[in-house]
Amino acid sequence: MIYNLTALRGDTLTLNLTFTQNGVPVSISGWAVFFTVKIKEDDPDISAVISKKVTTHTDPAHGQTSIVVTAAETNALLGQYFYDIQYVDTTGTVKTPAEGNITFVRDITRRVT
Length: 113
Hints:
Immunoglobulin-like, five-stranded mixed sheet
């Protein structure tokens, strides 16, 4: 599915996800969930501006996990990028349930103290 996101540069970004099948949460114990943000879709993963791998989930029995991107990681980002969320389940199946553009917009306050 394509979902376009907007976030403030310099803010912590938390993506709370629930994985379901036919509307029912599925266990994600043992899954790896990836969040990758790139300038160009064809850039190699090593060139990603954000690259997260989550293996410790919020409530794995009920399909819940969170991807946290720190303020330091978003601080230099401004403009439109490409992202996807991908997982690898315990059978080795790879799926990409979400992708799209993520736009980082200017924040007003730039101080942190």
